[in-house]
Amino acid sequence: MRCVNRLTAVVFVSILVGSACSSNSDSSQSPPTTVDHPPAQFVSGPCAQTPTPVPMLDGARCGELTVPLQRTKSDDKTIRLAVATIPSKTQPPTKVPLVVLTGGPGQDALASPPLNPDVPLNGDRDVILMGQRGNLTSSIKMACPEIDKFAISRLGLVYDAKTTGDTYVQAVKECRDRLAPGVDFTAFNSTDSAYDLIDLRKALKIDKWDVFTHSYGTDLGLIYLRMDAPAIEAIAFDGVTPPSVAALGWTWASVKQAFDNMIKACEQQPACKERYPDLGATFIRLVGELEKNPVTTMVDDTKVVIDGGKLLAWFTPVATHLPVDFPAQIDALDHGDPGPVARSMVMAFGNPEGIGFLAWGMTLSIWCSEWVPFESLDDQLQKANDAFPQFPDSVKAQAPQLPFLREACAAWNVPKAPDSIRDITESDVPSLVLSGSYDGQTGPVWGDYIAKNLSQSVVAVVPGAAHGVYAEPCGAEIIASFFDNPTKPNTSCEDSTPLPTYSIAPPR
Questions:
Q1: Where are the extended beta strands (E) located within 137-294?
Q2: pLDDT tens digit string along 421-442?
Q3: The whole model's pTM is what?
Q4: Maximum Cα–Cα distance for the chain, whole Å?
Q5: What domains can be seen in the chain, in order of their start residue?
Q6: Phi and psi angles of residue 433, each rounded to the nearest 5 degrees, phi first
């Protein structure tokens, strides 16, 4: 069963052998030149404090890695990054260590490790977690409670309204103004995070290791693979975010693929097809009707406004993670009962315990320098039209899960990253490319995209899995099998895992 807390987290919400070639940039801008700094230092110590206990850290060996804050500057400013090593159950370990890169950007690997406790990966190897710079467990924390509080309040706002965007931008400005006196925003980027991984490996005296990446971690992992390929024995990508294409319009292909797969599943289940014969057309019609005439309802004391944009925002992470009731919820909404959809919105988007958990400062610093500047508004809208031409223009104007991000980036005000950040990673390092057929955030289309340039890759798609395939039994088994045998993992559960059976509500 998918965990509600994990659903809330994923709403925002993975050089030598791996040579690079140009993608949609001209690569005329080289990576910034680094200057010499003292070697990074790892000092053992207590494990970092996390908002809630993380059982798998019990017995971990912990400490902090001190690295340069700005590798392009000759000053002596540093940042400390929390590290935890989950020891191998077999002592001494018989396999190389495994380092884990998590998502967001802005999620913390120690506070929310993307590992399935039912299929542990530390049977015969150490598993290493490091909180990326700017995240919850680093010495410079870039949380934005202002944005978290806005995200909760948005439940009661019209999703696509300019006033909603203005309120979001104001929250972004307030966070930036609060952080600015003590933060150099240009120090928080994927390239420096990749250097941090190299520093960690060297500080721990590791010659070779395996790498597991999830969500934004795949973006970072592909960049890191270009920089340190000889040290990587095998690398797995779960929920692919390619740095060469990640932007606003990039999101639409995943939503469309998940939508098509979930509608097709209803058509293939006789009871669902009979009870909800026009599910796909109904959803698309509701997006248009609700965008024109939003509905308002209450969930306990929480006001919820459902317009077309918010219905799509609900589908992308919520319906895909909890697919069983999707047809019945849409049918209820179509018959004047917004309660089922509204309650799941509040469950996913309205949790006050998440305030301060995501490092929005890190998130925006990456999105606004590495993603948004590399795509024109026309290209963004074309991708929306390609996916859902029937949607109203106001819905297509806002990328799924990233509404008003261009306006937010104008307020965040960080410089565009070098064009080289968009290079395509080519490598012959053994790779697993793992996706879920219901992943509306990082769909299988993007797994296929990167696999073309990873010559030793194995591609697997888990039926009915959403974002975070590692959390599913089949996904966890494939990951474990891959790291046990990178050249021939057992992916048989890909063919034997059934799609979730949709629930059937009584006729109205």
A1: 209-214, 232-238
A2: 999 999 999 999 999 999 999 9
A3: 0.94
A4: 70
A5: 15-141+179-248+420-494 (3.40.50.1820)
A6: -115, 110
